[in-house]
Design goal:
By secondary structure, the protein is mainly α. It is 74% helix and 0% strand. The chain contains 8 helices and no strands. Helix 1 (3-21) packs across helix 3 (43-54), helix 5 packs parallel to helix 7 and helix 6 (98-112) packs antiparallel against helix 7 (117-129).
Length: 139
């Protein structure tokens, strides 16, 4: 697994835990970065968690709009975390190609969630990817 893939996994872990605990993800990450008991945190993990947190409302609105038949609250928490990260990379990470953002999110869903989650993540991010250029133009 490459360094960025590991950073994504760690970011999903932080986003997931923050969601379950009702905490701000950046605050939780800051606790981890400063803790001597935790392995060093990759700079890309920090970028991802800060980016998702900064754009969280817009990200959640887009997920809710494009997750056919699902509300954010009804989704498994890990799927929410994966989708948030994938959508952040899709729309705001200019150095990540759209296909890579989607593929990485699918791989995270395969490893962390239910058997149906990869297909669900692919569907949501795929629908958003078709309008990604229009969305980026107004961000």
């Amino acid at each position: 697994m490459g360094a960025r893939s590991k950073a994504r996994k760690r970011a999903v872990d932080v986003l997931y835990e923050a969601d379950l605990r009702g905490m701000d993800a950046v605050t939780l990450l800051a606790e981890r970065v400063g803790s001597p008991d935790v392995a060093p945190v990759n700079d890309y993990t920090i970028t991802l968690v800060e980016g998702v947190t900064a754009h969280r409302q817009r990200i959640d609105d887009l997920i809710a709009e494009h997750a056919e038949g699902w509300t954010l609250q009804r989704m498994p928490a890990v799927d929410r975390a994966v989708l948030r990260l994938g959508l952040y990379e899709l729309l705001w990470a200019t150095d990540v190609p759209d296909a890579v953002a989607i593929d990485e999110a699918i791989e995270l869903a395969k490893g962390l969630s239910t058997d149906d989650s990869p297909k669900f993540v692919n569907g949501v991010l795929g629908r958003i990817a078709t309008i990604a250029d229009q969305l980026r133009a107004v961000l």
